[in-house]
From TrEMBL:
Subcellular location: Membrane
Lineage: Bacteria, Bacillati, Actinomycetota, Actinomycetes, Kitasatosporales
Entry's transmembrane regions: 6-23, 44-66, 72-95, 116-140, 152-173, 180-203, 223-242, 263-283, 303-332, 359-378, 384-403, 410-431, 437-455
Coiled coil: none
Family to which this protein belongs: Belongs to the sodium:solute symporter (SSF) (TC 2.A.21) family.
Protein name (record): Sodium:solute symporter
Keywords, ordered alphabetically: Cell membrane, Membrane, Transmembrane, Transmembrane helix, Transport
Organism, as annotated: Streptomyces musisoli
Membrane topology qualifier: Multi-pass membrane protein
Amino acid sequence: MAVDYTVIVVYLAGMLAMGWWGMRRAKSKSEFLVAGRRLGPAMYSGTMAAIVLGGASTIGGVGLGYQYGLSGAWMVFTIGLGLLALSVFFSARIARLKVYTVSEMLDLRYGGRAGVISGVVMWAYTLMLAVTSTIAYATIFDVLFDLNRTVSIIIGGAIVVAYSTLGGMWSITLTDMVQFVVKTVGVLLLLLPIAVVKAGGFAEMKAELPTSYFDPLGIGGETIFTYVLIYTFGMLIGQDIWQRVFTARSDKTAKWSGTVAGTYCLVYALAGAVIGTAAKVLYPKLGSPDDAFATIVKDELPVGVRGLVLAAALAAVMSTSSGALIACATVANNDIWSRLRGIVRRDGEEHDEVAGNRAFILIMGLAVIGTAIALNNVVEALTVAYNLLVGGLLVPILGGLLWKRGTVQGALASVIVGGLAVIGLMAGYGILANEPVYYGLLASLAVYVAVSLATKPTDEAVLATWRERLAGRSPELASEPVPAHQ
């Protein structure tokens, strides 16, 4: 394992070096939070693919392939579909808004007062996304170094927090590009063909496994529908995804390079399912489907290649973790804390935006590591986060982008009713049930439409400013906090 250890250690040292280099680039709030809005097509598509394809997409995607066969690709496939829909239909408009958070977009569209409540919901989602990604380090470091769970979480989490805190989005962008290349080589170009060959090829796989393993809908129609509802729609509104859209050099870059990233996700989805299917042939009686990835890597790959593929899994986890961490810190600082600070801040008080955001990444990073150590049921935590995100925020966000008649009262009612409905239904049906997100989303939509129609339309001056920003003809007004005396 000495060669494999060397590969991993060099990779981790490289991540920290990227963080140090990124620190020298991040001299302003825009540079620190959205990489100066300067990413071109190659870097944008690579980093976008890196953030959406995390540990769940890699280790979990292979596990679903092990359990269900080719239809196990649907979870990651719906993530790709969501990224494609975001890129084709919404990303150009989102990029032209020149904001930093989803809540700033809601304030701009509805004329204020929607940001704090939506910020709290988005903060909870990004925090739990970062926590679940951080917990995944335990699995990988256990395979690599036989470390216990807590030590693994601390080591992996500390590296991500370090490079994210140092250089913000520039560091994360640079590390994500490396992680994208490592994932592509490790999973698509090495593990996929080796797994298929070791399993005897597709003919042998078909002979060994039930026909359901090669049924595209074998996982079940209801499961696929739930994946679409949670992951496809979740891609449209998550702060972690939007913050990457804000890094694009232009609206065309956001649209077309995002489309490339979405297409890459579809390929990655199928690859994970095929690897899992091959693992089922090789190891038909594993204790857990999620063990399939680590088992096939440990037992079937040659020295050196094994280290690279494990680095690919580590890359997948780190890219999602760092993206969720900076999103969590951005929402906590810009949507929650800065608004409270704005109420009590003295006129003319100066503050360092980069230092403030760097401090919030460090604070949120420590909170993520602590929560990850304390938490046991990751699936339930992530389900709560996605249910709240989709049930509470999908309708007011898409309503604001698509329906002129939506009002701030309708948006606030939609967030509150949708969020409370999801929480109440999870208590009744169970956290992992499908009904909470179904009925919560319907309640959110009904309240949004009803309250919007029953209240005064949004002021025309607000809508005029909104249209100017959507068209890209207005300066970056909403990106900085409004002083308390204005």
